[in-house]
Amino acid sequence: MPITVPAYGKEAAGRLASMAAVTADDGALRRFLHGLPGVDAVGLEARAATLGTRSIKTTAKAYAIDLALSMIDLTTLEGADTPGKVRALCAKGINPDPTDRTTPKVAAICVYPDMVATAKEALGDSGIHVASVATAFPAGRAALPVKLADTRDAVAAGADEIDMVIDRGAFLSGRYLQVFEEIKAVKEACARPDGTAAHLKVIFETGELQTYDNVRRASWLSMLAGADFIKTSTGKVAVNATPPVTLLMLEAVRDFHAATGVQVGVKPAGGIRTTKDALKYLVMVNETLGEPWLTADWFRFGASSLLNDLLMQRQKLSTGRYSGPDYVTVD
């Protein structure tokens, strides 16, 4: 079936609609995805490594730390989650450092669908979004009606953002149109009765996609289907976000924007634990996509453990002393 064009601006919608032929059937989509330029793995990894050597110091570093703080999706996705734990996480998101009220708030609190209402109430009018994983997270092994019900429940409970996982089995088997249609259906399930919609982040689980070429194909497939964000990982497997994979996704977003005029966000998730790592990712965003993407609207970190290190580094810059982990709250 042809693509359903979301509510973009007229020029962007027209340019995206002109690509409808590539999703007309499974054969057309396969030809398009396999016709994308092959990834030069050596060049990609070398470029990511080079960008990782850029140095950020003094006032620029202070700005970058605050920017990274404002881009965090603070997350709890455990079977033992309780309303009390979610409320405590929301309190930390609103006021990450109780000793310094100038500390930026995080971008979102990410929880399971049954905890959305609790998070929404706890966050109040703070401006922090509530994100919810859906579609049988993290494996994605469920029938489509179950995935859509999961999504609708989260949206009805007040979720501002939905993080869905693609069916990696279908993707790796070459059933690209099935994956496309699932993403499109979940996108439609994000709609609310008042005409607004939750933003959709599409998770690839890049550690399971096997090749860089598959990451590029998954990126284009998801963006064609209407993803507002593309996200590396669930954080539940051995290999999560890496600089080369994230750089490749940033390049796909750049090329998609050039082709369609549609801006899509990127979220590396899992394994980003230090301020040094976060700053490397911000350099990649700046060098690949530029300043328009250097906001929480278009770039996020799915890395809850990163928050405490950013806070410690921020304290060091302001006081000259490294306070250590005992001076930040434990999630």
Description:
47% of the residues lie in helices and 8% in strands. It has helices at 10-17, 26-34, 41-51, 58-70, 83-94, 116-123, 144-156, 168-172, 176-189, 212-224, 243-260, 275-288, 304-319; strands at residues 73-75, 108-111, 129-133, 161-165, 199-203, 229-231, 265-267. A 7-stranded parallel β-sheet has the order 1-2-3-4-5-6-7. Strand 6 (229-231), helix 11 and strand 7 form a beta-alpha-beta unit. Helix 10 (212-224) packs parallel to helix 11 and helix 11 packs parallel to helix 12. The protein is globular, with a radius of gyration of 19 Å. The termini are far apart.
- Pick out the low-confidence regions: 1-8
The succession of helices and strands, N to C, reads HHHHEHEHEHEHHEHEHEHH
Q: If strands are numbered along the chain, what order do they take across the biggest sheet?
A: 1-2-3-4-5-6-7
Q: From the helix content, strand content and strand pairing, which structural class follows? A: alpha/beta
Distance between the termini: 45 Å
Question: What is the approximate shape?
Answer: globular
| Rg estimate, integer Å | 19 Å
Task: Using brief descriptors, characterize the structure shown.
331 residues; alpha/beta; seven-stranded parallel beta sheet; 7 strands; disordered N terminus
Question: In a nutshell, what does this entry contain?
Answer:
The chain has 331 residues and is an alpha/beta fold. The protein has helices spanning 10-17, 26-34, 41-51, 58-70, 83-94, 116-123, 144-156, 168-172, 176-189, 212-224, 243-260, 275-288, 304-319, and strands spanning 73-75, 108-111, 129-133, 161-165, 199-203, 229-231, 265-267. The relative contact order is 0.14.
